[in-house]
Amino acid sequence: xxxxxxxxxxxxxxxxxxxxxxxxxxxxxxxxxxxxxxxxxxxxxxxxxxxxxxxxxxxxxxxxxxxxxxxxxxxxxxxxxxxxxxxxx
Length: 89
What we know:
5 strands, single chain, protein biosynthesis, alpha+beta, globular, Structural Genomics Hypothetical 15.5 Kd Protein In mrcA-pckA Intergenic Region, Chain A, five-stranded antiparallel sheet
């Protein structure tokens, strides 16, 4: 499944267009390799997403084409969340 679609279906990012923009900015990594919106993801992959002040690392548990809100959280597991300190220049 495409990365941008997975992020939308799993509700990690609410809109597919936003997921595409984040990927184009180079803020998403799949297994420590910078990803594009069109990159394929599969169960077992590890995503690292840079959201403003934090970095979220998630492990993909399963892939579903469509998921209800209750089922979306079962598609991934948050491995860790870390805050990013802003450096003043």
